[in-house]
């Protein structure tokens, strides 16, 4: 049958309409995403905090399910390593910044040159130096900082009041001057109450970080990452004299456990420094904000306060010591893109502020740092963030053990601080370069 011209026009219009409908349907039809499940592990926060954030995220991304598991911090590192060896690693996990060099080959980083949301410029506007120095390597972002913790001085307010000490010590020299007043010794010459928990490798929480702080305050960068070697054993000019910063830091630290020192106030008979402080067995201690949770567990009625980390009077600049706590994406994750979407959500101001208000962990974002400088719970730690430093630890476990051995060399093996520093430096340089 031959179509008339009019019929041909009608057919052409009909076919065109159908074609347009099919094209538009294909153009605007969105394939329903395949549901995926992400596993996340952490140690420091209750699950309910993360669950609230996860619920808010899943409202926008209903096809993504995230399971958060709170792990035991004492076995966390070994559990993570076993999970990787068994090919059962979580998609997302939380680690300290000092752990990052060790875990770098197990992390899936974000390429900042290719990402449409984050780049070097935007990160400079969002985070302080300690976060950027820890998490940015070349053009890659290793993770998102949850918060930034800093070391501070904890002191027993009741005991300070008893001795009419109105203000906490601001310098290490002031702390030394308080030793004889605050220390308590029985008739047998035994210390029954320490003025401050310092000087040991056995029972001081965060001992390696405290020694690192002293080295930095004496002017050392501790290591040269380009040359892969220590620098704390290099002579520098400090307060118009030539010193070895590592040696000076070690001598200062160990004098608190030396029975021959006028500042002897601590020994291995005490329990862990935070627990001893909680029980009133030590008047002062150095600790991170997370120490508050331990104190709450052992003595919720303890009347204590927190002051800024002490500095040396002659220090040319103020230096605090901090560590970032970060969300990272596993190299073994089958869904790294979806993982990073969640990390970016956690980095947004509203989410970060919700997390801060729930946990009171010192925030990582500059705008939140500015807004919460005077917070009664976390203000001391927050005010220290901008001047906080850290250093590259190629293997946090090895470094921690070497620092403990360094202290033991002085306190129990009869070595001089100079000898102990040389040994520690040689060991770090050897093991670091052996990794190649």
Would you kindly provide a brief summary of this structure?
This protein is an alpha+beta fold and 436 residues long. 43% of the residues lie in helices and 18% in strands. Strands 1, 2, 3, 7, 17 and 18 form a 6-stranded mixed β-sheet that branches. It has a 5-stranded mixed β-sheet with strand order 9-10-15-8-16.
3D architecture notes:
The protein has 436 residues and is of the alpha+beta class. Helix content is 43%, strand content 18%. It has helices spanning 5-28, 47-60, 76-85, 100-103, 120-126, 129-135, 157-162, 172-182, 207-217, 245-254, 273-278, 291-298, 336-347, 349-359, 366-371, 379-383, 396-411, 417-434, and strands at residues 36-42, 64-70, 92-96, 110-111, 136-137, 140-141, 144-150, 152-156, 184-185, 191-196, 223-224, 229-230, 236-238, 241-243, 282-287, 304-307, 320-329, 388-389. Strands 1, 2, 3, 7, 17 and 18 form a six-stranded mixed β-sheet that branches. Strands 9-10-15-8-16 form a five-stranded mixed β-sheet. Helix 10 crosses helix 18 and helix 17 runs antiparallel to helix 18 (417-434). The radius of gyration is 28 Å and the shape is elongated. The termini are far apart. The model has no long low-confidence stretch (mean pLDDT 92).
SSE inventory with pairings:
Layout lengths: L4 H24 L7 E7 L4 H14 L3 E7 L5 H10 L6 E5 L3 H4 L6 E2 L8 H7 L2 H7 E2 L2 E2 L2 E7 L1 E5 H6 L9 H11 L1 E2 L5 E6 L10 H11 L5 E2 L4 E2 L5 E3 L2 E3 L1 H10 L18 H6 L3 E6 L3 H8 L5 E4 L12 E10 L6 H12 L1 H11 L6 H6 L7 H5 L4 E2 L6 H16 L5 H18 L2
Parallel strand pairs: 1-2, 1-3, 10-15, 17-18
Antiparallel strand pairs: 3-17, 4-6, 5-6, 7-17, 8-15, 8-16, 9-10, 11-12, 13-14
Helix pairs in contact: 9-10, 10-18, 17-18
């Amino acid at each position: 049958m031959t179509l008339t011209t009019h019929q041909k026009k009608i057919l052409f219009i009909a076919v065109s309409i159908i074609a347009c409908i099919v094209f538009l349907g294909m153009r605007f039809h969105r394939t329903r995403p395949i549901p995926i499940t992400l596993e996340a592990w952490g140690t420091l926060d209750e699950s309910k905090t993360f669950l609230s954030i996860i619920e808010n995220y899943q409202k926008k991304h209903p096809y993504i399910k995230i399971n958060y598991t709170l792990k035991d911090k004492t076995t966390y590192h070994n559990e993570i390593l076993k999970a990787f060896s068994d090919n059962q690693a979580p998609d997302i996990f939380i680690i300290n910044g000092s752990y990052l060099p060790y875990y770098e080959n197990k992390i899936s980083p974000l390429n900042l040159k290719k990402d449409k949301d984050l780049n070097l410029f935007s990160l400079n506007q969002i985070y302080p130096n300690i976060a950027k120095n820890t998490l940015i390597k070349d053009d890659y972002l290793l993770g998102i900082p949850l918060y930034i913790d800093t070391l501070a001085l904890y002191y027993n307010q009741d005991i300070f009041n008893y001795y009419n000490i109105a203000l906490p010590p601001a310098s290490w020299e002031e702390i030394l001057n308080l030793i004889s007043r605050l220390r308590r010794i029985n008739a047998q010459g035994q210390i029954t109450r320490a003025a401050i928990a310092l000087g040991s490798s056995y029972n001081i929480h965060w001992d390696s970080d405290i020694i690192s702080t002293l080295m930095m305050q004496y002017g050392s960068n501790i290591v040269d990452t380009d040359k892969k070697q220590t620098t704390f054993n290099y002579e520098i000019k400090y307060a118009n004299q030539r010193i070895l910063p590592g040696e000076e830091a070690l001598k200062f630290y160990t004098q608190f456990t030396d029975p021959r020192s006028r500042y002897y106030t601590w020994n291995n008979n005490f329990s862990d420094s935070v627990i001893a402080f909680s029980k009133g067995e030590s008047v002062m201690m150095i600790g991170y904000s997370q120490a508050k949770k331990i104190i709450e567990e052992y003595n919720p009625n303890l009347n204590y306060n927190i002051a800024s980390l002490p500095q040396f009077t002659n220090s040319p600049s103020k230096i605090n010591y901090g560590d970032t706590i970060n969300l990272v994406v596993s190299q073994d994750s089958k869904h790294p893109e979806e993982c990073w979407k969640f990390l970016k959500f956690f980095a947004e101001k509203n989410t970060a502020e919700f997390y801060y208000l729930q946990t009171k962990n010192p925030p990582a974002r500059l705008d939140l740092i500015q807004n919460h400088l005077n917070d009664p719970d976390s203000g001391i730690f927050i005010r220290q963030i901008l001047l906080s430093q850290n250093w590259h630890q190629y293997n946090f476990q090895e470094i921690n053990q070497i620092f403990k051995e360094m202290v033991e060399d002085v306190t129990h093996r009869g070595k001089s601080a100079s000898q102990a520093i040389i040994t520690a430096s040689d060991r770090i340089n050897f093991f670091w370069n052996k990794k190649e």
